[in-house]
What does this fold into?
Amino acid sequence: MTTIGSIKTVGVLGAGTMGNGIAHVFARAGYKVILRDVEQRFLDRALDTIGKNLDREIKKGKLAESERGNVLGRVQPVTDMRAIAAADFVVEAVPEKIEIKRAVLTEADATLQPEVIIASNTSSISMTTLAALTKRPDRFVGMHFMNPVPVMVLVEVIRALQTSDATFETTMKLAEKLEKKPVAVNDAPGFVSNRVLMPLINEAAYCVMEGVATAEAVDAVMKTGMNHPMGPLELADFIGLDVCVDIMHVLVEGLGDPKYRACPLLKKYVAAGWLGRKSGRGFYTYER
It folds into this structure.
């Protein structure tokens, strides 16, 4: 059985925004990280991002400059799934599409040692459904990091119906080793974070669509009146409007309540390719 003391090497599946951030915090905490993605260019981009984020931490005095090379040196980029056989714990962070997750989790499950825990960073898909895709459902758990991972302290640790107590407790302790704040959540569509956040973003989009206020005004109200560090539409651009729409679909399907239907304006922006920061335009425009 995997215990907190037996975890030395962590596999991270997916080197995108969340994956490179997760790799960063594990490497910073002293773990060896096997970072796997399907193409070398994704891995190169991830390592470049980790390097830039380490530089920010050095400037802020959160990391000694002498440690930068050591942290980067703990990250091993690979394209071959077989390389993760050496991992003692795995975090899946591939795109929020059930068919992609099924393919990756099935392959990883067949590669890893039987006692290894698999955690999913899914932001909305049922953990119970994902656990059932593997032959180790009792050793499957949710580990939902917040973006940007190196900065945000919250980790929602989500129990699938099948998750064992030992798996859950090990994952909670592991999050603490990363200097994160783990919060226990049961499996339900959107968990807590997105079940509360996405309707806020959606309603803010309706305010713009219906001419109640501009995006800037909506965000100003929430920042100055509700003390939010970032307005909901600015945050939506940061998350990705396509991701927001996908999560709203999961909430509608999972909870069966039409109040979670995505705002038509959000869907229109996604259809136009206005996805937020990553595309250069969403509710705001960005230099690319």
Notes: Strands lie at 9-13, 32-36, 75-78, 89-92, 117-120, 140-145, 154-159, 181-186. The longest helix spans residues 40-59. The two ends are 47 Å apart (CA to CA).
